[in-house]
Every structure is written in structure tokens, then in C-alpha cells.
Write a structure and sequence with these properties.
single chain, alpha+beta, Arc Repressor Mutant, subunit A, 2 domains, 3-stranded antiparallel beta sheet, two-stranded parallel ribbon, 5 helices, 14% strand
């Protein structure tokens, strides 16, 4: 993201509908996926770097490869744990998935922090850019997705990335009895 530009927000056209991006001089402050129920916001003039981020996101939603790690994010106000979780998740490649426990381990928090990962996913200010849709339960179930459209959007994003699904779980995943096996 280019150097200082004023803070603002604007909706950008994508193949899935308008995506709202918020920004400040430090980077993107939020991404809101298309939501027909959301109020329309007045558009602020977007700096070139934000327009480039919008183009990258629109291309991704149209099936083009995209590496969102090039985008600067403003993590001001986030806990160190949330920052570690989001940083680790940004390294998960397109088409890959991992469990809450595995993400907790990759973030340096230990597998016992799977619930903390779930909380971080629920409040992720940058869905898709920080790909919370790639995080699954230990039994392969999709579980929640707090962005507009919920699990339908999560399924759609995973299918866009070529992830094989069987309803609400990864194809080939089998349900676990709670507590039988550690999350991994």
C-alpha cells in the first residue's frame, strides 16, 4: 500500500457485488463482502493503492489468482494474539485449509487456543484478504462464517479456490465424537 493517504471508505464493484473497503494511511482497515442489506455509504476518493486492492479482490472473486499478502493492513487496536493469528492465516495458500487448532499452533499459541482462533475469525475485519474461510473444525465441518452470506459465502469461496466439499464439511472428512481426538 502506498504511503500516506487520508482515511476513507468506498464500495467497489466485483463479480459478487459491491465490496466495501476502508483504509487509512497505515493500510486497509476493513473489508466488507457484498451484503444487500447493508446501507450504502458515500464513497471517499480512493488512493491508487486502495483501487489496486479493489481490483485484486475483484479479480479473485472472478477466479483469477491473487496474493493478498501484498496488501498492507492496519492492525491498530488488535491484540498481539489476534495479530499473530491473522499473520499466520495470511500464509495459508489458496486451496488449502487448516483447523482452528492448527492455526493456533502456527500462530505460536498452542493447540489449546483453538477457541481464541474462533473468536479472532468471527471478528476478522478483512475477510478474504485474511482468509478466515480456510479455517475448519477438526472434523472438517465448516462451522460459522461471520461475513455476509454466512456459510453459503464460505462454501462459495472454498469452491472458488478448488476445495472439495461434501455439504457442510470437507469432502472425505469424517465426523469425530467430541473430545475423542485432539483438534488438529
Amino acid at each position: 500500500m502506498q504511503a500516506p493517504s487520508p482515511a476513507g471508505q468506498a464500495a467497489f464493484a466485483t463479480p459478487w457485488g459491491p465490496v466495501l473497503l476502508g483504509w487509512n494511511p497505515r493500510g486497509l482497515t476493513r473489508v466488507r463482502l457484498p451484503d444487500p442489506a447493508a446501507p450504502h455509504h458515500a464513497a471517499d476518493p480512493a488512493p491508487d493503492a486502495v483501487q489496486a486492492a479493489a481490483a485484486l479482490l475483484a479479480g479473485y472473486l472472478d477466479g483469477a489468482p491473487a496474493d493478498f499478502r501484498v496488501l498492507a493492513l492496519d492492525a491498530t487496536g488488535l491484540s498481539e494474539a489476534d495479530r499473530a493469528i491473522y499473520a499466520a492465516l495470511r500464509e495459508v495458500p489458496v486451496g488449502d485449509t487448516l483447523t482452528y487448532g492448527e492455526l493456533a499452533r502456527r500462530a505460536g499459541l498452542g493447540a489449546g487456543a483453538a477457541r481464541a482462533v474462533g473468536v479472532a475469525m468471527a471478528k476478522n475485519p478483512w475477510p478474504v484478504v485474511v482468509p478466515c474461510h480456510r479455517v475448519m473444525a477438526a472434523d472438517g465441518a465448516l462451522h460459522g462464517f461471520s461475513a455476509p452470506g454466512g456459510l453459503d459465502t464460505k462454501r462459495r469461496l472454498l469452491r472458488l479456490e478448488g476445495v472439495a466439499l461434501d455439504g457442510a464439511r470437507l469432502a472425505g472428512a469424517s465426523p469425530l465424537l467430541p473430545g475423542l481426538l485432539p483438534e488438529g
